[in-house]
Amino acid sequence: MPYDYQPYPYAPPPGLLAPEPRHDVIVVGAGPVGLAMALELANHGVSSVILDANNVVSVGSRAICWSKRSLEIFDRLGIGDKAAEKGVTWQVGRTFHRKAEVWSFDLMPEPGHKRPAFVNLQQYYVEEYLIARARARVDRVDLRFRNQVTGLRQARDHVVVSVETPDGAYELEARYVIACDGARSSLRDMLGLDFAGELFEERFLIADIEMLGDMPDERHFWFEPPFHPGQSALMHKQPDHIYRIDLQLGWDADPEQEKRPEIVIPRIERVVGHRNFRLDWVSVYSFQCRRLERFVHDRVLFVGDSAHIVSPFGARGGNGGLQDVDALGWRLAAALDGRAPAKAMLAAYDRERTFAADENIRNAARTTRFMSPRPGAERLFRDSVLALAEQAPFARALINGGRLSVPCIYPSDGPDDDRMPGVSRPGAVAPDAPLPGGGWLIDRLSGRPVLLDIGGAAPADPPEGVERLRLDPTPELAARYLGACDKAAYLIRPDQVVAARWAAPSAAAIGAARDALWVGGS
Amino acid sequence: MSLIRDPNMDDPDGIYADLLAAHAGLDADASAALNARLVLILANHLGRRETIAAALALARDTDCHG
Fold first, then answer.
1. What is the pLDDT of residues A249-287, one digit of tens each?
2. Percent of chain A beyond pLDDT 70?
3. Helix (H, G, I), strand (E, B), or coil: what is residue A77?
């Protein structure tokens, strides 16, 4: 069944009649990132207005692969269970060259995590679930459809945006504007910002088809498959019997021509081996990897695709955007209520997420280069890797059909103890683990600084503003948090990133690490 | 020393990217010359004729166009 697009109601905004009081935050764009941003801010007690030019969810499945980290963030926003139940859970990827499987990876080799490595779910469902949550949080989220931002000017202590609605134009003021308006961000243009990077001279056909298939719940990638000679192909399974197929077309392909059903259907038929499918959505795109030099421009903050875009093989676009939300929400909330200096908190957001964007761009660009090598040495090395792969296992590790999104580990100068495991070092997202009494560690760590004390490492009374979570060691906690130590205390940030860890901290040491969080430190 | 065929690079994607970057902007002759120098340098680093012979055999066995 095709997705049933229901338009959301438009209501004339109060600003059409009389100037509205200044808002704390305006979020521009009600895609997954904008909606998540507003809900994350709501969790931190901040009210926002979301302005969206449109009134329906994403047309076409678009972002489909949601990472473990995104699911953990969805849990906080109230849609984790729905997304996990509806989505297709997967963790294994297989790469084929011609007819032979040459490489496979398992993104979740160990049990004991609440959320799987990946869930495939069409972007329209994610938006539908987030909109339902936003509409249940009218206390904090004012979601305005068919409100298009047409202008913006920054003042010393606020921003004014001009908004166009079906009933006319109005102006709206806020202390901060968050640009979540996507890859073709109009706010970026309004500020005249350079979006520097690289265009890859390659085109891909992306098609969703509905069929009754027997593909396992895995990601399959082909180099030079018999059904699409000389090019690469990718297939993903989605809910509702929808399959995503990506086919490399070459730079010379004519995008308009390639979208025509009489061209697309025979191509797909060669992939799936029959004609018993329905074409659900088709698009032709080229890849770009670009980012803004800075994500913070005075009181306008860029989050998600408006700040950085990557080629899609690695699922680093949507997932990277949600991690931006994660890094910004608690900091902006603290800046707004005066708990922390705005400049330092926003600089910390910029520092961490430009670092992450570089990592995502680096990985996505390498994959794209491997798939679409330039003539000459690039082509020779690529073809040589594929040719060696059958006989030489080392070459299989070089085959790059996508390095999938994992949260980056931020550079951190937080207190560390190298006897403890690398997975939980300062700057990393705190690894999940099952709790002895049931439930999951990750669900106990969000929203405020937590002192995770495993085995009684910290003084009984933690400093003010830090909540203590005292646990006895379990095999999972020992493996992920203790390493060679028999007890450990971890200071976890509100976004579940490890800030510091010690085997036996003093109250003063914990207090100092806590204070560093609120001045933009790591 | 027998030839290592299993993954042995500490950062395979990074090393691969470095190789491509070294060739960026070179024409075919300059590229081939760079590869020749690189092979000689790596052969010296390996230092064992037997190992290099095994590597040569693997490379010759592998036909890119097959």
1. 999 999 999 999 999 999 999 999 999 999 999 999 999
2. 100
3. helix
Q: Measured between CA atoms, how close is A392 to chain B, in angstroms?
A: 5
Taking only the tens place, the pLDDT of each residue in B7-40 is 999 999 999 999 999 999 999 999 999 999 999 9
Enumerate residues 6+ apart whose C-beta is below 8 A from A48: A23, A24, A25, A26, A27, A37, A38, A41, A42, A140, A141, A142, A178
Rounded to an integer, the average pLDDT of A304-327 is 96
Residue whose tokens read 């949600």: A322
Mean pLDDT over A394-404 rounds to 95
Do B20 and A396 make contact, defined as CB atoms within 8 angstroms? no
Choice between A445 and B62, residue whose per-residue pLDDT is larger: A445
| Prediction ipTM score | 0.95
A403 to chain B: closest CA residue? B13
Instruction: Provide the CATH number for the domain formed by A422-517 in this structure.
Output: 3.40.30.120
pLDDT at B66: 44
Q: How far is B13 from chain A (nearest CA, A)?
A: 6
CB A364 within 8 A of CB A316: yes
Nearest-by-Cβ selection for A393 from B5, B13, B62: B5
Of the pLDDT bands very low, low, confident and very high (cuts 50, 70, 90), residue A12 is very high
CB atoms A400 and B13 under 8 Å: yes
For chain A, the domains span 14-87+113-196+290-362, 422-517
Rounded to an integer, what distance in angstroms lies between the CA atom of residue A305 and that of residue B24? 29
- Cα A372 to Cα A370: distance, rounded to the nearest angstrom: 6
* Nearest CB to A376 within list B17, B31, B62: B31
Task: Let me know if domain A14-87+113-196+290-362 sits in CATH 3.30.70.1450.
Answer: no
How far apart are alpha carbons A248 and A287 in whole angstroms? 11
Contact present, A294 and A346 (Cβ < 8 Å): no
Residue B15 vs residues A14, A127, A373: alpha-carbon distances, Å? 58, 39, 16
Q: Quick: pLDDT tens for A431-485.
A: 999 998 899 999 999 889 999 999 999 998 889 999 999 999 999 999 999 999 9
Look at the block and give the residue holding tokens 């496979």. A104
CA angle, residues A210, A69, A455, in degrees to nearest 5: 145
Which chain B residue's Cα is nearest to A402?
A: B13
